[in-house]
Amino acid sequence: MQSHSWLGSRVKLGARILLFAAAIVSVVPGRAASNTANETDFRTLYDQFVSAVRANDKNKIADLISFPVSSWSVTQKNMVSETTIPNRAEFLAKYESLFTPSMRAHALKTKPQKISDDHYIISWHDEDLEYSFEFEKAPSRGFRLTAYLIGPR
Q1: Which pLDDT score, from 0 to 100, does residue 19 have?
Q2: Which residues lie across from 133 on neighbouring strands?
Q3: Full strand arrangement of the beta sheet holding 113-116
Q4: Where would you tag: which of 41, 77, 104, 114 has the fewest CB atoms within 10 A of its CB?
Q5: Which long-range contacts (CB under 8 A, 24 or more apart) does 30-37 make?
Q6: Half-sphere exposure of 71 (CA within 13 A, CB side)
Q7: Taking the mean position of all CA atoms in its chain, how far away is CA 77?
Q8: Angle at 40 between CA 34 and CA 43, to 5 degrees
Q9: Is pLDDT of 14 > 70?
């Protein structure tokens, strides 16, 4: 009788372990689905960004930016400085200096990199400097372009 009791407790223990494992597995896909949703959201924005850059559509590009922008690098006379862009009107007024042909060309041939679930970049470099467009997920608006940065490589 003892062996039958021992077997019954083992079956109950096995059932509990399986139930626990099933509970864990059911939670994991939820997280994966969230990440996939973020990736899908970013891919949608990125496709819109590439299309707008290819067409040099400054209004559409402005639609994809999260204003105010606190950090946007500009190059003037071979000097890099950082500026802010308070609103869409300011971006559109200074579009030619804020979104140069060189930036557009690199944006079209550089693949995005995932930094975290809510942060992606497009980056490239020359001998001394690294350039990057930064994209972050805003809670109410989805992914948006949040910065253009130039820094030492």
Answers
A1: 38
A2: 122, 148
A3: 79-85, 69-76, 142-152, 129-138, 119-125, 113-116
A4: 77
A5: 34/117, 35/117
A6: 11
A7: 31
A8: 145
A9: no
Please state, in angstroms and rounded to a whole number, the distance separating the CA atoms of residues 114 and 50.
17
Beta bridge partners of 80: 75
**pLDDT (tens digit per residue) in 23-49:** 444 444 444 455 678 999 999 999 999
Using a 10 angstrom Cβ sphere, with 0-12 exposed, 13-18 middle and 19 or more buried, the burial of residue 82 is middle
Spatial distance between the Cα atoms of 99 and 57, rounded to a whole number of angstroms = 11
Name the average pLDDT for the chain. Answer: 84
- Domains and their CATH numbers in the chain: 35-152 (3.10.450)
What residues contact residue 110 under an 8 Å CB cut-off, 6+ apart?
Answer: 122, 123, 124
pLDDT exceeds 70 at position 20: no
What is the Cα–Cα distance from 74 to 94, expressed in whole angstroms?
A: 11
Q: Could you report the per-residue pLDDT of 90-101, keeping only the tens digit for each?
A: 999 999 999 999
Q: How far is CA 30 from the centre of its chain?
A: 20
The pair of structure tokens assigned to 79 is 């000097």
